[in-house]
Amino acid sequence: MNTIRCTMLPLYHFQTGSAKTLIIVWLVSLLFGKVAVAQQRQWVTLTNCQLVTTHEFDADSFRVRSGTNEYNVRLYFVDAPESNLRYPERTREQAEYFGLTIDDTIKAGVAAAEACRKLLEQPFVVKTRWAVAGGRTREPRYYCIVEVGGTNLAELLVAQGWARTKGVVVTLPTGQKAQDYIETLLTLENKARQTGLGAWANSTKRRQQKKE
Question: Where residue 71 sits, what CATH number does that domain have?
């Protein structure tokens, strides 16, 4: 663990003008900011996790229990259809991407959440760097990688047609670069689209591609 030594500045440093004060504050903020980023880059593995069902449950965002602690998590790399119209603009954008009506997009979101629930029936692993993601709840939500039987949940959802390759990315704990992993997901997504799996089953885009 790194130890940070701070030297107290004499009082006169804060009496010689606001410019110097701002510089000092900026330097201190920069120092602690770099330390925070370095700590954030360290992966933490939570084993034997369980799904906690809540009304905010989506295929790419849910609550987990690890031991006596509970966390809200958001998957890296993927975006699943919304299961309601809480964010209408996002739902419209998803509908356009999948080639669905708004109603079908919401139905796909509900089905995606159920598929995710089934995948997480058994204990699973969560890997996180505690990077905070935005969310609907007052509690923080953390970006993470979830592994089910050794397979990334993001891959499973995309392969089954319940999510698309979109979102915040990261170098994987294995060291695999984000762009390389994105290519893997895009390959799975294309297969799901072509075969009409999951949300792609009713896609107008898929029907147009078949005609062509």
Answer: 2.40.50.90
Compute φ and ψ for 191, nearest 5 degrees: -65, -40
Give the end-to-end CA distance of the chain in Å, rounded to a whole number.
59
**How would you label 45-65 residue by residue, b for 16+ Cβ within 10 Å and e otherwise?**
ebeebebeeeebbbbbbbbbe
Give 147-187 pLDDT, tens digit per residue: 999 999 999 999 999 999 999 999 999 999 999 999 999 99
Q: Is the domain of 26 the same as that of 88?
A: no
Whether 26 and 121 map to the same domain: the answer is no
User: CB neighbours of 92 closer than 8 A, spacing ≥ 6?
Assistant: 102
Burial tier of 38 (Cβ tally within 10 Å: 0-12, 13-18, 19+) = exposed
Q: How many CB atoms lie within 10 A of CB 6?
A: 8
Residues of the domain holding 102: 44-211
Contacts 24+ apart (CB under 8 A), 23-32: 31/4, 32/4
- 80 and 58 in contact (C-beta within 8 Å)? yes
Q: Which pLDDT tens digit goes with each residue over 8-34?
A: 334 334 344 555 544 444 444 444 443
Q: What is the pTM of this model?
A: 0.79
Which residues have CB under 8 Å from 125's CB, separation 6+? 45, 46, 47, 49, 146, 147
